[in-house]
């Protein structure tokens, strides 16, 4: 059984019910082991996305992700990391609408920044992000 960190981003929070329904609609077989409603501080956002700190879009990304509440999710199940990434679709929602029209980013996102949801890109990243966002839990 694998764990991943998922996050519904501020732009998709107004459609939260529909986004969460994708877990069953896409038959992902992932269980919500924990969830938390958060308003990320700038410091938390910089920490979460620290791998992108040298990228030109970093400041804008931090502003976007702190612009409203987010839902942080601990998802578990076989191949959780890959299954959730697959359900999300490509980073850019505009690309997702042509290449993966049933994906979460196609349905609920806007563009390459405002893209509805996040998913860890590896097991190591999942553990890092889960321990950051659910510090009271031992995710190992
Ligand atoms: P995530 O990590 O959120 O699941 P990802 O792994 O598909 O997304 P990354 O390349 O890790 O994409 O980028 C992290 C986030 O930064 C993206 O989800 C998006 O919100 C934003 N982003 C990525 N590329 C760009 C870009 N070129 N311009 C603006 N924002 C971007």
TrEMBL record:
Residues 1-140 form the Nucleoside diphosphate kinase-like domain. Transmembrane segments: none annotated. It comes from the Eukaryota. The active site is at 118 (pros-phosphohistidine intermediate). ATP binds at residues 9, 57, 85, 91, 105, 115. Belongs to the NDK family. This is Nucleoside diphosphate kinase. It comes from Hirondellea gigas. The lineage of its organism: Eukaryota, Metazoa, Ecdysozoa, Arthropoda, Crustacea.
């Amino acid at each position: 059984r694998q764990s991943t960190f998922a996050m519904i981003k501020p732009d998709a929070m107004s459609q939260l019910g529909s986004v969460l329904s994708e877990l069953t609609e896409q038959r992902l077989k992932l269980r919500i082991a924990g969830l938390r409603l958060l308003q990320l501080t700038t410091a938390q956002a910089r920490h979460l996305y620290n791998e992108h700190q040298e990228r030109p879009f970093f400041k804008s990304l931090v502003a976007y992700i702190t612009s409203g509440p987010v839902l942080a999710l601990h998802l578990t199940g076989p191949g959780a990391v890959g299954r959730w990434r697959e359900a999300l679709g490509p980073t850019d929602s505009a690309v997702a609408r042509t290449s993966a029209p049933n994906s979460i980013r196609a349905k609920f996102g806007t563009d390459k920044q405002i893209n509805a949801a996040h998913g860890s890109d590896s097991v190591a990243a999942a553990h890092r992000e889960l321990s950051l966002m659910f510090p009271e839990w031992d995710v190992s």
